[in-house]
Amino acid sequence: MILTVTLNPTLDKFYWVDKLPLSLDQPEEAILIRSEKSHMFAGGKGINVSTFLAGEGVETVALGFLAGHTGQIILQDLLSRGVTVNFVWMPGESRTNVTVIAKGQEYHPLLIHEEGPPVPEEAMRIFLRKYERMVRRAEYVVLGGALPPGCPPDCYRTLVQLAHRAGARVVVHAGGEALQRTITEGPFLVKPDVRTELELQGMPVRSAEEIIHAGKKVIEQGVEACLISHRITGDILVTRDGVWEFEARVPLTTFKNLVGADDALVGGLLAALLRGEPLVEAARYGMAAAVASAGVEEKLCLDPGAIRRELDHVGVRRRGEG
To answer: In the CATH hierarchy, which fold is given to the domain comprising 2-20+35-318?
Structure first.
């Protein structure tokens, strides 16, 4: 079983528009942007991974916090997709994230993210009790996304420690301080979120050379594998055994919605590992899942056939080889 943790779930709303105004600096006028179509899905990194895994037929449980009417919508969406859930309810209203996608600019969406409700101490205590029970059944644990207000900054570190105590392998799919505090605990895989800060532990990760340098430093601290996105269609995997570069040979014009592609990558990688594939091939399957997901409006591609077709477009090269 794969247990995912999303401490700050969201209701993802997507709006497709013909174009965005060149400038929003029109103080004397309201700016009306008409949406040609829209979609709404339960979201958050861990939730997206669970949704993908459920589509692959993998046993998964989504854990985290929900609140208010928005939380009910998130819950019902997950149940309709066959995801087993075990959330802690708390006061407030779960957040809503908005993505605006302009025609011809699908690879460069406009994202508006809410902060989310604060987590009360009692809700955190209940969550930890649930987590300690559930993690005993898990082969892998995915800690996904940013921490909500009220969560201790070392929350993910504590969850990694509890998972290791239970014998589970941990994937940290997050960024910033929440990720940094877990690294010395030696998680199995880290997938840094570098959307807002192009750095890892204070080291820049803009170029391939910088990514590899930062990845090797993380591996030296006990992490087994580090997977970092490099450009829209590329990823770099760093392990103790070497460095591999993945590249999807697809035009950007085929993309319809990039939100969730990174989560499909993590989900695809884990699904392949459970099938017994080695890590490099599992990462290649994850990359194919990410490309397939970027090519659909529904955020996540849940068609295994479409994902396998994308495998033909995903190349992998070991660094140092021709």
So the answer is: UDP-N-acetylmuramoyl-L-alanine:D-glutamate ligase (3.40.1190)
